[in-house]
Amino acid sequence: MKRYLIIVLCSLFLVPVYAKKEKKAQEVDSLGNKIKTGWNFGILPSIAYDADYGFQGGILTNIYYYGDGKQYPEYIHSLYFEGAYTTKHHGIFRLNYDSKYLIPGYRLTLDATYLPDAMCDFYGFNGYQSVYNPTWHTWKKNPEKMSVEDYRTRVFYKYKRDLIRVAGDIEGTIYKNLKWNAGIGVLGYIIDDCNIKMLNGKRTYDPTLDHQKALNPDEPLLYDKYKTWGLIGADEQNGGWHPYVRGGITYDTRDKRQGPNSGIYTDLFFTYSAAFNAKYGQQAAAGYNHLQFNFTFRHYVPCFKDKNGVNRITFAYRLGVQNLIAGRSPFYMDNYMNTLFIQRVYYEGLGGGNSIRGMMANRILANGFAFANVEFRFRVVNFDIGRQHFFVGLNPFFDLGVITQPYQLDDLVQRHTNGSYNTLKESMTATTPNDKYEDYFSTNTKDIYMPHMTAGVGLKIGMNENFVLSADWGMPIDRRDNGKLANFYVKMGYLF
Questions:
Q1: Cβ contacts of residue 182 below 8 Å, gap of 6+?
Q2: What is the number of other CB atoms lying within 10 angstroms of the CB of residue 42?
Q3: Domain segments of the chain as ranges
Q4: Are 260 and 254 in contact (CB under 8 A)?
Q5: For an engineered disulfide with 190, which of 162, 288, 437, 463 has Cβ 3.0 to 4.6 Å away?
Q6: What is the pLDDT of residues 382-415, one digit of tens each?
């Protein structure tokens, strides 16, 4: 389990600030809380520790304007900012605006995000078809607990990836709860090998030592091997810029957008992405212009209300699918989960705290996938601090992911090597003869379609129904999805 030292896990670190004195509200919402008016925002320090990323420091804030409170808990304007960085160069810089009232009758969302990542996870293609070897990247201070013969480098399953995202989305009404949606944006990926010199810092690699924390700059990573074998083409190795247009429909009967207690939300949309090479500013291979299809269904079922009529238990689940229906997409875009509205920092899957909690990030990488998230949401306690309404909740959950469109590995090799090699085994034998096929790839084709499953529990601390701090602990059912016991995540908001 990745070691996280989370200092901020309770509402005592939330700093409510008033830009304007509130009007005294006599009415209450469905939870019995006084309706909020005027401006409200909370400031939260972002402090964490990760064994790979190091210490994280930063700040985030969400500014809400409720006006006279007639639409509470819905807000009139929401402006979110987060800036954080770690000692191992993993950053979050994001500005997001959301409103249903700036353009009367339409919902508008604007997002600008920069996510530099010195060690982005890469475990190969097609889920379980790619064999995961935890000893290859598990470094321990105690030499007796390490496998000297198997250990390679702590960043064996990493590569460098910076993501720039700029998006604008709008929603209008067709009839009552049926909406139309349109969006435009650009995703910019800047990709390279891990910068070993930067990651080592002042440490120097000594080849005469069996055990050391310094990284070997000459040890090839899995990403390097995929390029050598022809699984990753030369026109996608350094990333690219991908402007896109998106359109679809949604049906929404939720009682509220953040942490709903009842209702249905479903969407169906298509995304067309173009492709431009990041290094030269020229159009990449025409096949990287592609069309994707997405469908999600979310259902929130109230299960128990207290004597005051306040909902205490909600059963919530989400089902989804993302498939490639035309063209070819570069590998680095296949772990981006398309969405009609940018509401979170990360939209990566499958694997990790934004899709399948408890599974390693990007464990499933394929052209198409389906997923499910199921959880019970228990609202344990409601309380006030000053003029702010707080709640604490617990969420046991079960997550699942499965591949629907796998990569055809031999076809990739033939395409990227211009037919120099007909199969992946042939390419491996010719380029890296010391690598055994079975050490990297399963010989059982059924492994591709096996479901990946996890389970766990989450803690929620919310303020005024919209500002929610989330801490989730999840563990895999199959150890091939995580070489450690479990993963721990601290994020903003509910997963769905």
A1: 169, 170, 245, 246, 247
A2: 21
A3: 80-492
A4: yes
A5: 162
A6: 888 888 889 999 999 999 999 999 999 999 999 9
